[in-house]
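Sanity check. The docking grid for fe (ii) ion depends on where the pocket ends up, so I'm generating a full predicted complex first rather than guessing from homology. Inputs follow.
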Amino acid sequence: MNILGISCFYHDSAACLVRDGVIFAAAQEERFTRKKHDPRFPKNSIRYCLEEAGITSKDLDHVVFYDKPFLTFERLLMSYLTVAPKGLRSWLEAMPLWLGQKLHIPKVIQREIGYEGDVLFTEHHEAHAASAFYPSPFKEAAILTIDGVGEWATGSYGLGKGKDITLLKELHFPDSLGLLYSAFTYFTGFKVNFGEYKLMGLAPYGKPRYKDLILSELVDVKEDGSLRLNLSYFDFLGGLRMTNKRFAKLFGGPPRQPETQITDREMDIAASIQSVTEEIVLKMVHHVFKETKQKYLCLAGGVALNCVANGRILREGPFEDIWIQPAAGDAGGSLGAALSVWYRYLNHERTIQEGQDSQMGSYLGPSFSNDAVEMFLERNRYPYHKLNSGNRAQMISQEIAAGNVVGYMAGRMEFGPRALGARSILGDPRSEDMQSLMNLKIKYRESFRPFAPTVLEEKVSEYFEMDRPSPYMLLVAEVKRERCLPQPSQDGGGILNRLKVKRSDIPAVTHLDYSARIQTVKHEDKPDYHDLISEFERITGCAAIVNTSFNVRGEPIVCTPEEAYRCFMRTEMDILVIEDFILYKREQPPWKEDKEWRNELILD
Ligand SMILES: [Fe+2]
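Predicted complex below; grid placement will be based on this.
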């Protein structure tokens, strides 16, 4: 039984194939089209899923779309009528896509992939909820979904039990925590749906001095975590912007222009909205606990990618444990929709292995055999050396320990925005200048942005204030107290000076507030990666490494050997590993490109 789930037309298009109830393949369209957050119909993702399963669209038993477009259209129409004639321009801009594609999903699917059967639809938050609960390791759990907006819903909670999901309550547009966060993303000069992560990364640099202002003027938060936005400050009902002049006045001036200097104001705004978000999420979580009386909680929706808030849910929340869908944003809707058909529509029983989720480490994308990689290297005459199982981990970890930066591509590509050791750039976390080196010379991005560690699962509590696995890099916790070093006064000095102060014995992955966004790896999930870090520990005594996604700023994570090689040559990376092959920069022929490639990337 093959079920194809599709999510597209908003942001982060993706496809997922569920075969006999097992998540068989999943990938995001941006990885194939090389256009970050690509919202278009996921033709390439679907082609990949079918190829991975060795089938054609004729062999699909069901195709399901993750959203009900008519309900979304109704919401847009109502929003427009509320503010009309204001908003006419954005309404007219949106219409062609609606009339041409979005309202005719079955036809589009038939045309694009030749699928003749009926197309099923789930509601947007139903798909998020299914993506959170079904792959989780829990037989029974509470579910909480929070995002910008689905059809009408901006959040929902409910209960998962075996194969059943019951959604109990929804929060509706325009009252949305996701949109509130995105409004601040826009106001601080980052791109909406792109730069939310940066805002979160910026927060530790500031003081939450606007928090009370946000809570008194912009958003009214109830005890149960539900909220009401004061729409006189926002412009997303009819405008093309998120915030208006009144909003700007409240924060002492216009929005920061993208790519201009980040000032104390932006840092303080980031700290404030992050703190408000955490407070709202914690209230929601407490309410869901009270209403469902469950031990465990599952999370999805774009806001569930806020790993600082997730860390607090785990530490301060009432639930014993939580599980977060790694593709928590709309890409994961394809996975949730497909699983929803298997369990809710077709009524299959759900069995789980105690303590084991069924997300497959989220290694659900394309992989390339050693033969294919060798052919690629030979064809292009790129100098390489072969590794074998006896020396692989040692050769690579020696390079990392010597201060080199390694592009690492091995096995199936990750599904979800985080690189988890299949398409990663690796470095030595003990190095004091690794953070600025990797930001400025490898990723070509803002120097304030923190890096995350991967640590051996069995050693996590030796390095961090955390006692459990975090396989998907969705939890933030503090670096172990005894590893931290005191910092001088936090005031003044600018971002760059504050970055230079060593904060722990793993400075490259210790954020300004001593926090780290942690990925744990266990041997059975990804043996090559676990072996590599184990070997690094044998050489250096350190069981963690720096892991950042294999891409430069504005580019989707690499998928193929060709993209990996290109990214390697465009940056100051020293070493490239693709499967069992190692390439040294010093041995490569000079890299030439006709155009200035950086102009082609959309800055986020
Ligand atoms: Fe969503």
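Relevant for the grid: The pocket of fe (ii) ion is lined by residues 124, 128, 147, 150, 301-302, 330 (CB under 6 Å).
Also worth noting: The mean pLDDT is 93.
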